[in-house]
Inverse folding.
């Protein structure tokens, strides 16, 4: 019997706890999952359902080496080691390479050396004051937006200006919660989690758990169909070099794809946040019984409506937040997609971490405006 209480197949070398890559790779189904970290073999079949980062992100590495992903996702490696021990079922045979399939071991070692050098130079040490000031300017924008209407009235011009300020605040809050969600601001993970829930929940009206479970998959397998939710276009668009060919061969015609460059502007940026994300967030919180995140989310809408109903009435306030979401959605789409959509988008190729990230990611020119506008995601390669 392997770790995690899962029966192993007869004929494999379980008694000695020594495995080949071929044996490991057979355990990659939803109900049977092994992975390798630092040549140690772990049975994660039962643990995957309890994984704090979500079932899908860890399952994307079933049947393969997850060492680099494990290191990238866990700031405190010593802490998470205690969760690995009960899952350990053996190690790779001495005759096996440390890397599976065609992963480039030389690149992996060079990238490890680069990471260690960056750690020694303190490049991963954040400045909490910067992020506090970032939060301060977001809250200031929200206050200014409300004061403009409260002091000078609800004319179309002032309403439009209020919407612009609110959209800027919402977009910047999105970038800020993203940093907290990556546990990259404070040394204590609990502080990062708390601030993320405040920013994405109370300041934006969304769900931290929904965002994290979705976004972690993107980082684990960027631009990989069926694994990165950011390239799941729900048949509205075809992207990359492979998908259009596959749709053509299979004669899949959900949409007039030869006109997608025209209708993208009608249903892409305008609807992503106001419709798709909004529905997905509500459905996810309710289906997962995530009442904590639901309370955070509702606190935003309660605060917003209490602030603006005396000025615009209920319908006017709903129209205002809908327009803010419309503006924010355009901002979000252009920033997030310019870093990934121009790059390689394909099915799983089992590349090493650095190669996978570089082929799916590009940077945008640095400037003070670009840094602020994109929440520093114009440095997407370094971020990935």
């Amino acid at each position: 019997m392997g770790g995690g209480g899962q029966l192993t197949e007869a004929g494999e070398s379980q008694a000695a706890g020594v495995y080949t890559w071929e044996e490991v790779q057979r355990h990659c189904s939803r109900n049977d999952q092994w992975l390798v970290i630092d040549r140690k073999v772990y049975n994660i079949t039962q643990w995957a359902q309890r994984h704090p980062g979500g079932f899908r992100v860890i399952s994307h590495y079933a049947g393969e080496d997850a060492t680099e992903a494990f290191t990238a996702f866990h700031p405190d490696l010593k802490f998470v080691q205690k969760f690995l021990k009960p899952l350990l079922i053996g190690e790779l045979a001495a005759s096996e390479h440390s890397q599976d399939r065609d992963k480039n071991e030389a690149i992996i070692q060079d990238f490890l050396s680069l990471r260690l050098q960056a750690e020694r130079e303190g490049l991963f040490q954040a400045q909490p004051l910067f992020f506090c000031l970032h939060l301060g300017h977001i809250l200031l924008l929200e206050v200014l937006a409300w004061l403009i209407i409260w002091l000078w009235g609800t004319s179309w011009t002032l309403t439009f200006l209020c919407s612009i300020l609110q959209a800027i605040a919402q977009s910047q809050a999105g970038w800020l919660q993203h940093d907290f969600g990556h546990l990259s601001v404070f040394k204590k993970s609990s502080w990062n989690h708390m601030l993320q829930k405040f920013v994405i929940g109370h300041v934006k009206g969304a769900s931290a758990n929904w965002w994290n479970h979705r976004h972690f998959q993107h980082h684990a397998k960027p631009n990989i169909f069926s694994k990165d939710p950011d390239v799941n276009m729900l048949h509205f668009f075809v992207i990359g070099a492979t998908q259009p060919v596959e749709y053509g061969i299979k004669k899949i015609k959900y949409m007039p794809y030869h006109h997608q460059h025209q209708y993208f502007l009608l249903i892409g940026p305008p609807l992503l946040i106001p419709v798709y994300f909004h529905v997905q967030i509500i459905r996810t919180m309710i289906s997962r019984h995530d009442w904590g995140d639901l309370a955070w989310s509702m606190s935003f809408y309660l605060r917003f409506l209490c602030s603006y109903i005396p000025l615009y009435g209920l319908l006017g306030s709903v129209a205002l937040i809908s327009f803010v979401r419309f503006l924010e959605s355009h901002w979000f789409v252009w920033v997030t997609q310019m870093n990934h959509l121009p790059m390689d988008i394909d099915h799983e190729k089992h590349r090493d971490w650095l190669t996978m990230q570089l082929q799916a990611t590009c940077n945008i020119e640095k400037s003070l405006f670009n840094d602020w506008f994109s929440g520093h995601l114009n440095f997407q390669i370094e971020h990935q």
Q: What stands out?
A: The longest strand covers residues 32-37. The two ends are 38 Å apart (CA to CA). Residues 40 and 85 are 10 Å apart (CA to CA).
